[in-house]
Amino acid sequence: MDLRHLQAFITVAEERHFGRAAERLNLAASPLGRVIRALEDEVGTPLLTRTTRRVDLTAAGAAFLPQAQAILAQLEQAASLARRTAQGESGRVRLGYMGAAQAALLPRLWRTLRATHPDVQLDVTELCTPDQRQALLAGELDAGLMALPVWHDDLRARPLASIPLLAALPQEHPLAARASLSLRELAQEDWLTCTPYATTLPPEQVQALCMAFGLVPRTRAVGGSESAVVARVAAGVGVTLVPQTLINPRQEGVRFVPLEDGVTLDVGLVTRADPGNPAVGALLLAAQDLNAPT
Questions:
Q1: Into which CATH architecture does domain 160-265 fall?
Q2: C-alpha dihedral over 32, 43, 64, 10, to 10 degrees?
């Protein structure tokens, strides 16, 4: 069924006059009449009754009119949605995030996106940084809030926050009572790290942080999450670094001591170099608003 025929019928039904309907459609009255007859032939029944003064709907035409209007309205909505999706104004973004970003960044980014692009939806999944990198490269995520740097040529990062890292020490440790300390003061300690796929702070980043201060840490990988590592710190097995956003001040047996060196976990919004999904642009704009000066 030709959509132009539907539009012609709707216009005649609204005007109840072929001349006025033809003017609205930029047609002559005779071609408009042929269009209506072609539609009636296709439907299989008259839709209009015509007199010299007026046009009325038949019972079939009255039943057909709202359905025809709904079809055209739905098609326009579909076309509008397609245009908005292509322009990144509508759609869905699959976003990964690591634990340290959950309180510090994710709610703010989400609120900003809802305010600026309310028709872009987020599907969020908590994943560690290595898993996010892998999912991004495999096309299973569109973007990720993860630790920087990303160390991959096919990924692009927009830095968003620097989260202070605190030293987690056993409560009885000689340095545990200090108000702050230097990373170098922990040079002789046994450093505990999570396995790479169960952590906010990957072992390679702990190594890089320490080496930036001239330290070669004695590291020991511990299975499980950050909480498993902190539990071993409480048992006196070693020390570790914990993002400020993840510390539990009521953790028994552990003291979290600020570092004087300005040691931070840098977190950013990471996408593929070619995101593929136009709605990712809306998320990048929201991230830009997030860290804009106020």
A1: 3-Layer(aba) Sandwich (3.40)
A2: -20
